[in-house]
Structures are given as structure tokens and as C-alpha cells.
Design a protein that fits this description.
Layout lengths: L5 H12 L1 H13 L5 H7 L7 H25 L11 H14 L1 H16 L5 H15 L1 H4 L6 H29 L3 H16 L4 H22 L1 H6 L13
Helix pairs in contact: 1-5, 2-6, 4-10, 4-11, 5-6, 5-10, 6-7, 6-10, 7-9, 9-10, 9-11
């Protein structure tokens, strides 16, 4: 509305996405007296990554992307099903997404809030609590979509379902590997893949809500005891996947 160039919006979007981490850093000394914020962050990345976990996470999200692409392409009347016209723009979009969302948000939401809630609640309950407030934190975005009335309600509903479901998936695989790279990858693929498809935004959010909800339910079914009742940081999917 102000007529600023696109890069100004991109910069401000990236800065605002880091607000959860900025808030956590500002309050760190009160939350963890005598500890180092830098060391705290380093500890979140120190565990060795499990190739099997990264592979399964990537396969799940690639499958969701392909299914969404298939459904949208069958109902689309646009010339191109993709939003990115060149490889250069694809690379820019990938790293802009990485900086704006996953890198900026995960230290605060997953690195701190999720872990602290799991000390008092089951992984599932902690995920639902964080997923709800994580969704509410995106509230300003809801009113930049241009949707009003029933369309806005549908967008908000599907948005909240998709984020809470994605949060359950994040928790499952993060607890399995205990490295912040895992939720960063999940977050990155979620944002990146949905941004690649040229389709109706409500439809895109709806498909993602459905598919991620199905994955979240399957994770709960695979090992319900640890998801529903487990405390602290527990593995919440079967060791068979490793």
C-alpha cells in the first residue's frame, strides 16, 4: 500500500520473523541465570543428525507437495502451475524462505518453548499448545491475504489445522533426533513447497492441512503411549524407522 519496492518488504518480513528468537534472547538471562545464550544455541545443534530421519522427513513432505501439485493442476486454469519463472528466482526464493521462517522462528518456538512445555506435558499436548500460539502469532498475515467473510474464516481454520498438525510432526522427529536442524528442515519444506505452486491460496492451505493432519494422526497411532502420555523428550515414533 505504501508503494515500497519488494526488497523492502522482504527485509522487514525476515526481521519480523525473528521476533520470537529476539524475545527469547532478551529474556534468556532471566530464564536461565548463569548460562550462555550462544552455548544454548550451539547445544541445540550438537547431536549428530540421523540420515534416516532426514530422509523420512524429506520423503513425507515431497509426497505432500506432489499430491498437492497434482490436485491443484487438475483444477487449475493458469498457464503455469509454478510461481517461480527461473532457476535464479528459485534459489532466491529458497534462501529468502530459509532466512525469514525456519532460521528465524525455530530457536524460540522449538528450541525453547517446546522443550520447556514437554517438561510438564506430553509431547502431543505441548505440540498442540505451541501449535495454537504459533498459529496466533501469524495473525497479522491473515489480514494481508485480502480474504474477507467466509473465505477468511476458511483460510484461518485451515491455517491453524496445518500449523498444529505440522507442529506434531516436528515434535515427533525432533524428539527422535534432538537436533534443531530437523524442525528447520520441516518448516523450510512446508513454506517452500507451498510457495512454489500457483493456485488458490485457500485450496493450497486446505490440502496441506489435510495431508499434514493425516501424517500427524499416523504418528500418534504408531506409538500412542509416548505421544499421549510421555514426559520430557522422548522418542515418539517407533525405532523401526531408524
Amino acid at each position: 500500500m505504501l508503494g515500497f519496492p519488494a526488497w523492502v518488504f522482504d527485509v522487514m518480513f525476515c526481521i519480523s520473523s525473528w521476533s520470537s528468537t529476539f524475545a527469547f534472547a532478551a529474556l534468556f538471562k532471566k530464564i536461565y541465570p548463569g548460562q550462555s545464550f550462544i552455548q544454548f544455541v550451539k547445544d541445540k545443534f550438537k547431536n549428530k543428525l540421523k540420515f534416516s530421519v532426514i530422509l523420512i522427513v524429506s520423503m513425507i513432505q515431497a509426497f505432500i507437495f506432489l499430491m498437492t501439485l497434482f490436485l491443484v493442476s487438475n483444477n487449475s486454469e493458469v498457464d503455469s502451475i509454478f510461481t517461480i519463472p527461473s532457476w535464479g528466482m528459485l534459489i532466491y526464493f529458497f534462501f529468502k524462505n530459509l532466512l525469514a521462517g525456519p532460521l528465524g522462528e525455530e530457536i524460540g518456538w522449538r528450541g525453547f518453548a517446546q522443550i520447556e512445555l514437554q517438561k510438564k506435558h506430553s509431547p502431543l499436548k505441548a505440540s498442540i499448545i505451541i501449535g495454537f500460539w504459533w498459529g496466533m502469532w501469524h495473525l497479522p498475515i491473515w489480514f494481508t491475504t485480502g480474504f474477507v467473510g467466509i473465505d477468511l474464516i476458511k483460510y484461518i481454520l485451515f491455517f491453524m489445522i496445518s500449523l498444529i498438525s505440522t507442529k506434531i510432526v516436528m515434535t515427533a522427529f525432533y524428539n527422535l533426533n534432538q537436533n534443531l536442524i530437523i524442525p528447520i528442515i520441516i518448516h523450510q519444506f512446508f513454506n517452500f513447497f507451498i510457495g512454489l505452486i500457483n493456485g488458490n491460496l485457500i485450496d493450497l492451505i486446505m490440502y496441506n492441512a489435510i495431508f499434514y493432519l493425516v501424517v500427524a494422526v499416523l504418528i500418534i497411532v504408531i506409538n500412542p503411549k509416548k505421544v499421549l502420555y510421555g514426559k520430557e523428550n522422548t522418542n515418539i515414533i517407533n525405532e523401526s524407522i531408524t
